[in-house]
Amino acid sequence: MALNSQRSRLLRLAWPIMISNVTVPLVGATDVFVLGHQPNPALLAGLGLGTAAFSLSLFSFNFLRMGTTGPTSQAVGAGNMLEARAILYRATVLAVLVGILLILMRPLIIQAMNFAAPAEPTVEQAAATYLQIRLIGAPMALIEMVLVGWLWALQDTRSALYIQLMTNLVNIALDIWFVLGLNWGVEGAAIASVFAHFCGASLGCLIIWQRLGVDRWKVSPGIFAWDRVRGMLLVNRDIFIRTVCVVLGLLLFRLEANRFGAVAAASIEPLYQFLTVTAYALDGVSHAVEPMTGDAIGRKDRGALREAAIAALQAGGILAFVMSLALFILGPEIISFFTIIPEVVALAQDYYHYAAILPFIAVWCYLFDGMFLGAALTAVCRNAMLQTMAVYLVCLFTLPRWLGLDGLWIAVIIFMALRGVTLAMKWERLLGSAERTPN
């Protein structure tokens, strides 16, 4: 009965996250759609290069969300709302500082992108234009991460849904208007994203301000004391290293495609949407088990922790199998929807089966990530990712030389599989993070 209760709780938390998460890659899919219907494939390839560099620049700091949810959920589980509010304020200040730094570093980021991934001049120009504009919205995007992570920790996934829906639906609407309606190209796609993050972060601030009520200024003593800040930075350091490896691993996958030419790079983009849409959907289960894990640890309930983990593995595995099956069946039609460029369509259809199998291979790393981050076992996540990255880099820089684009896809499949295996090996460490079982 306890396991059934955890399944019900998991699904109650997961469905709003899943809906909001699915709208995130729909923004990227819309970008691919509107630029895929332009006659110049360099714009689509430039979008891929620019969004990959943006992801590395911004989502390397996704620790602002991950480092907020786990500690906050443990504080809530222990009944310490003063510390839960203090975590929110510390993380928000850090988000603003990091966002400003990213704006100031735009020229360096663009130079680094061109150095790391030399491409055709038209592709580089499109990518640079996109990044120059998109990074202006970094502070609001990072604040939004913190607000969503804090609401998830309180298991208020519906409010987080409203924030993400605001951001992503505004982004999609403006994307279509600016690119297809006004013919602004990659500039339009970037401007749409900046406006969208401003709207989402503003709504999030309003929701949390109202939720905190008269207690909004009641926080634990010494909220910005060095020992508190240092503890937050240490947790975030581990998550930062782990996240950089994830983002860099996927970025290198896309960048390596440029070595096969603009058409090959463009063909990756529709297929990459397979990976991102399913990953965000499956992350609904991962993000739901994260506060459940933290809450169980805060209450020192090993049994609840184990049951939450099992419920997540069961639900995620079934969902991933259904997604992979659907993608095997519908893959060619989905590719044709994203782009009308004949040579891109033909090449993408030769490789879609690799993208279709990825959901079932990758789901386990998403789920274990959620559990270990909820348990605040960030050093374990960091070390497992470093081990995975070492093997992946060898595969990435050897297999494509031998097997062409097939080798590139095989390398990314190995990457996602090893992420799950290295964390699964620490299962007992996860269970041991709950120190005692209630009588």
Please characterize this protein's 3D structure:
The protein is built from 17 helices and no strands. The chain has 439 residues and is mainly α. It has one domain. Helix 1 runs parallel beside helix 8, helix 3 packs parallel to helix 7 and helix 10 runs parallel beside helix 14.
Brief summary:
The chain has 439 residues and is mainly alpha-helical. Helices cover 85% and strands 0% of the residues.
How many domains would you count in the coordinates? 1
What is the H-and-E element order? HHHHHHHHHHHHHHHHH
How would the global form be characterised? globular
Q: Work out the helix count.
A: 17
Give helix % range. Answer: over 70%
Q: Report the span from N to C terminus.
A: 17 Å
Spans with pLDDT under 50 lasting ≥5 residues? none
The tally of beta strands, per DSSP, is 0
Structural class: mainly alpha
- Average pLDDT value? 82
Provide the descriptors you would attach to this structure in a database record.
single chain, 439 residues, mainly alpha, 17 helices, globular
Give me the secondary-structure topology:
Blueprint lengths: L1 H35 L4 H19 L3 H15 L3 H24 L1 H11 L4 H14 L3 H16 L3 H25 L3 H28 L13 H32 L4 H37 L3 H37 L3 H33 L3 H19 L2 H5 L1 H20 L2 H5 L8
